[in-house]
């Protein structure tokens, strides 16, 4: 394959992605407005009342983004993008912390059956406790320990991210075929060499799958983490505020939701790009 | 004469209690240095198990075994043998060259020496043009040649091969047989070769060890007295067919 054809391949893929994104947005808008039109015409109110108060027009939502958030203030879109960036930073730090802990636990568990048996139930159990219950505790403890507030939020994000990484790292580290393990044994390879030369590379497709899930979860974790303390600067606080003003200005909440969604997509997209860089095409997705 | 493999009343049982399976029983086997020995028999006759005992990938339950005159575990730690499996087992994130270098990396051989030796090995298996390719870009036969180059890279005195050509088509298989014979002659290495193909065993070996299942036992050892230099003409030699028939009859008797 020549460079030229690769480039052409990339640009065709980009065009195709662009077309499908536009088509998807168009479909969603059509569905939204179609629902509103039909339900209004037939005076149906179930399952969602089509009034402008509960289901604002899509163009009103977009327009809300380009109005000042406060009198004489900057446009809502700038305020929300800045807030989203702030939240993304917290999410990213949480993602790194959670990802590292997840990877470390995966390695520990693959090395020692005893530690897997001892700790795995707690790892699974940790995910059955709602993050909404954990978040206020972490905020209080963080405050007592004088940890910066944004870092407290990152810890809450990390709580959501370490789990998928742990599970997938463990599965990936166990994925090499038995003959590959025998091969390393025939070389009298040390456990560390087998880990780094065979198991970790074999686990990369699994780990990246988990990192994509974790990237999205870390944004959720950061938003939820901002709520209990009413922590300013991030998009979580704005979502809370706009939901309280929902009946007066519903389009603002929807606008903020769109920006929050975009933030998550950007993060997942970045992880996917990293995956394409680090893993050769033939072995990207685990089967 | 030194023996690369010396087994005395060797036995292997998998599992314990009522679930246990006796895979090998009463194996006596001597393999002199420089020989090409094939282990042949139906599935479940323990031929792969025996190969793994020699390489210390499994531990025997009873009897004695020496590999290269040492305990198999010591032979493994000394990297006395190279192993080739039915699947090439190449690491697909490494290029062909880096795959051949893998054992050398683990043995802490300097980068320069590694790349020199990998180059020589790829030349030996006639893949020097493919060093920078990835395994998936190669045919099955080529992948298996890389696996052989990798097994020979650290110059072991013994080569253990577990049905290495089992997944290849007939034409490729015959080419690979010529290839492995050439390597055997050029390097003077001893080979223990597991197969379930009678013609393959006869064509390659100096001696064919026939095994029968439940539990795995050696039922006969047949010395192959074909000329040392073997080529396509050997496959049409009347003696070749006689030996194939002889092996087949021993196998059939084992089934009865």
Written description of the protein model:
The complex is a heterodimer of chains A (287) and B (256). Chain A has 287 residues and is an all-alpha fold. Chain A folds into 2 domains: 1-55; 57-283, Orthogonal Bundle (MetI-like fold). Helix content of chain A is 77%, strand content 0%. Chain A has helices at residues 3-41, 58-65, 76-111, 113-126, 131-144, 149-173, 178-186, 191-226, 235-244, 250-278. In chain A, helix 3 runs antiparallel to helix 4, helix 5 crosses helix 6 (149-173) and helix 9 (235-244) packs antiparallel against helix 10. Chain A is globular and about 75 Å long. The model of chain A has no long low-confidence stretch (mean pLDDT 89). Chain B is built from 8 helices and 9 strands. In chain B, the strands form 2 sheets. Chain B has a 6-stranded mixed sheet with strand order 5-6-7-3-8-9, with helices on both faces. Chain B starts with a strand and ends with a helix.
Relevant terms:
heterodimer, A: about 290 residues, mainly alpha, MetI-like fold, 2 domains, 10 helices, about 75% helix, B: about 260 residues, alpha/beta, three-stranded antiparallel β-sheet, 9 strands, about 25% strand, globular
